[in-house]
Fold each of these.
Amino acid sequence: MRPRHAALALLWALLATAPWWLPFVGGYTQLGSRVLIYALAAMSLNLLLGFTGGLSFGHAAYFGLGAYGAGMTLKYLAPSTPLALVVGTLAGGAAATLLGPSVMRRRGIYFAMITIAIGQLFYFIAVRWNEVTGGEDGLAGFSRQPLHFGGLTVALDDTAFYYLVLACFAAGVTVMALLLRSPLGRTWVAIRENQRRAQFLGIPVPLYVWASFAVSGTLIALAGALNALLNDFTSPQDLHWVLSGNFVIMVVLGGMRSFWGPLAGVVIFLVAQDYLSSLTGNWMTFIGLIFIVVVLLFPRGLLGMIRFKAGSA
Amino acid sequence: MSLLRLENISRQFGSLVALEDVSLEMQAGELRAVIGPNGAGKTTLFNMVSGFFPPTRGRVLFDGNPIDALSAEARARRGIVRTFQITEIFPEMTVRENICVAVETGAGVNSRPWISRAADLRVRRRVDELVALAGLAAKADRVASELAHGDQRVVEVAIALALQPKLLLLDEPTAGMGDEETEGMVGLIRRLHAEQGLSILFIEHDMDIVFGIAQRITVLDQGRILAEGTPSEISTNDAVRAAYLGEAA
């Protein structure tokens, strides 16, 4: 257990100091924010995918709803960053909660197909509903607003915003860690492991899949809301199934049986994207190559392998 | 009142008749074996009691109440818990976690996102008891899929016990086990019956085990009940000898 605690302390220390050291390794603060936002998204997806066994190929829908919810709040409702985050999170969370029953009885490929279909529904709404969503051009014309703490006003420059993202990331990750250690989390893992056994223990499996779907959708919506604030922009691409697929790739790259695995997957994916896309328009080809190599060498993902070895030693 | 009562149960799969007009009554506290050649309908009978699928005709009563309309989950919550012919456990969880999930489910706390220290302590204590009862103490923290086949089957029984069943259904509990493992499982079944008064219905092919521990035996053949009685009645039953025991010997 000790090495694990040390690794965690190091991880949080690195995250807390990222704005200082990122430039020395060729990074920049916004990239750090993006990594944390996508890590929150991928870890949220992994609550459903890796810890409950539900392969969602439509999680961009809830990410995008969070983004549109936050953007539209700032644009049409009130110039408040906290309100934008809350509305975005609740919008995505409500959608996932309401749509959960339509997927909770499906398994495997059927689960994947229905989640894609639902996701694309939101994509087309965003594309067609021009007057409100900005259509294909995306939603612009809003910007994140300073935070007010009593009399203190904090302007959200890149560094301050990074710490807002870090705080949200820490909150989301803590919620997930606590859930996975609870009886509810054990039941989710049991369902992933053996649905029939769970059913014959008297566990109403669909209701638990629903709960996981709702929690996962709510947390990924928070990530989406942050992403809209990071860019002061969102577009239908944030709802598209291609992004859903990228989330799945990030999770699998890092290791879907591991709590922190998706973070590793996101770092590789985004850093490779950031670096390669400055060199070539075909950067996705290289992501594909990295994916193939990782899957061949580490069938359980990068961190999945480390944990697996540590566990058997 | 009997614990389990099957009234003229039939089950067809298309044109295949798996069970025909089977009636059976089992008292609380009974240790009963179901035997019969392959394809006799033993597992089909288990499936209808545990709620895997309903009978085509007839009805199942548990504790005096018809349960045909109840799902498998609801039956488990009422106390009918089964194991499977092919072991069904949670392979990547440790032995302790396997049992823990079942204890929490049995205690009705498994849906909680948060558990009090006191409740958690009660769960842990119960898990420890079950681990000890099943003789798995030395392997409690190992991942279940790494265990030997026989130990995995014991884990499945321990999971079932964690629900504090009123009726335990064991589908070939010693299948694929070596001598020593078989002895352990038979000892466990015997202890559960003798010390805890648990009602157990089990399917078994090994006649030494059946005649060694069962109080009553139901013999199925081609979907019908061929005979029912105490081991000595069954061993002297001509129809059974002709159709089944003679064939096995």
Amino acid sequence: MREFDYHAPSTTAEALDLLQQYGEDGHAMAGGASLLLMMQQGLITAGHIIGLRGIQELQGISVLPNGGLEIRPLTTHRQAERSPEVRSYDPTLAENFSRVATIRIRNQGTVGGNLAHADPAQDPPPMLMALDGEAVIASKSGERTVPLDGFFRDFFETAVGDGELLTAIRLPPVQQGTKSTYIKFLPRTEDDYATVSVAATLRLGADNVCQDVRVALGSAGPVPLRAKKVEAAVRGQRLTPELINSAAELVRDEVDPISDVRGSANYKREMARVWVGRALRSLVDGSNGTR
Amino acid sequence: MSKHQLRFQINGETREVTIPAHRRLIDLIREDLALTGTKEGCSVGVCGACTVLIDGDPMSACIMPALFVDGTSVETIEGLAPDLEHLTPLQDAFIRHGGFQCGICTPGQIMAATALLEDNPQPTTDDVKRWMMGNLCRCTGYYKIVESILAAADVMAGKGDPGPAIQSGGLQGPGVIAAPGAQGSGR
């Protein structure tokens, strides 16, 4: 690993100053779990690491006045899975955080670091996208918000630009009657990356007519992605088993998986169809994530 | 390359060290502090061999910047038992129930399980499997590890007997703790 200087700012403003000062030779570090590996492999060779751990304002979870939730980036996965605020916002979200890797990684890795790392196989991104989350990104010239659907640009690339920091993840209030689920296909081991993962939220009206729906997938392309064709085929419709099957077919054209040890691209495309169908069926059955 | 002075506790002892920013915790523990009970396996945070407790929480020392333990309390396998006659119930159970064979993963297994029983003193089999799933073992097939942890939980709760007696020679016996003639130094 290349040697580096470590800086420990205590405010976001100081961190942004340092990021600007060092430019391309600077890199922010939260829990360090993924970053240290990328530095060991020579994929990131910054000479100046701006450590965020001491920044109090980037810690913690709050319920927003509108009933939404704000998760600040230094929150560890372990803190998020155990947070009463997260659990009362949506138990499926707490469960999603609890399914990240192993307890050691959940103790070290942060929610913000996970999103900024932008590994398309991670668990929280599709769940947070299905809950219609947005990222708050700060720079020296102010703050902007970017929907998480649009935050991920490519493998390991996000909308967070040079001199910017992810400072919060915001989730809107969950509409009464919304159900959610997160399922992942793990043919090897429980702590492996998924072959494909599916997060979905669904609100049904009378006679199982879909009022609102969001479906997002992990491990299904260069970025975690929303299955908007599936959503469009489901929204406003009565969710019969036949309708769900034909809607799930559409996901094949929305995913762009790579062939690897977890399956060929064609196999993963097929598994995306199968697991999207399962996710939607479980939400209609009420067998999963009822709130 | 910036240097940093850290002050932290390791196994109850306060230490001050100066390290370069890129030092990993595993190297600080094994090389600077000569506590070689913590093993390095995969070096990428997957296998669990290097599990140590930081303020009670299990973490992978191989992907942890050493910088991050400043102000914390770190516990390694050397910190559990004051001497070979006073093993923790968990260490004792791993011996009695065959919770290890080659032993390379054992310090990590025991540190992870120590944190589990602290968090959840009466775990179910599923609780144990879920908590321990990131501590890999290529010898035991895991059943004996799960059995050891559940047995230790019962002993700690005052339920059940410790289990099969430790064979010939007790803790100094061949293949149990150390080769014949070797004396454990404690740390």
